[in-house]
Amino acid sequence: DLLDPIMEEMKSGLSNLGAALEDIRRKLTSLEEKTNSIEGRIGEAEDKLYHIENTSAQIETELSNLKSECDDLENRACRSNLRVMGILEGTDFRLIEKFLPAILGEDTFPDKMEIQRAHQALCARPKEGERPQSFIIKLLRFRGKERAMRRARELGQLTWNNSKIYLFPDISVELLATRKCFNQAKQTCHERKVNFALQYPAEL
């Protein structure tokens, strides 16, 4: 019976080892459950993120469309407007009605030229020596604006009260940036004496 103590010690060791293994098994099971739970949450988070990304892309598309529509509405609302550069600060607004016929000629407007309103562009008042603010003149009829622009191109340099005057269509910043993309093509047309026009609304 010399082996009895050894056997008892081995049994005790095996029992302790079994308990340790059972504890490890329980911990592994718990870890597996937690891992599965984490994987499930990650999957849910990925699904939500995918949904958010799709929603964000849709919102960006809708926002871009809304901006385009707003820009289109702005330009349509301003299609009868003239932007006039060069009018000196302090000019009496009451002179504006006489301004266009004076620099373009009375025959430019066979019918009576009707102005809905005129105002200076919304920007900071220029300092002394800086370029004066532009004037916005809204004509009652689009054809009046077209006649004014056509006549201005025919006459070339315009002057009024010893100041150089420039007439431009009143268009949005976005449309102006788009039109600048055609500067090279416009220059080529000028060099080859090809008549052209960038009209609005049109697909650019």
UniProtKB/TrEMBL annotation:
Gene3D superfamilies: Head and neck region of the ectodomain of NDV fusion glycoprotein, L1 transposable element, RRM domain. The keyword Cell membrane does not apply. It comes from the Eukaryota. Residues 14-76 form a coiled coil. InterPro entries: Transposase_22. Keywords: Coiled coil. The keyword Coiled coil applies. This is L1 transposable element RRM domain-containing protein.
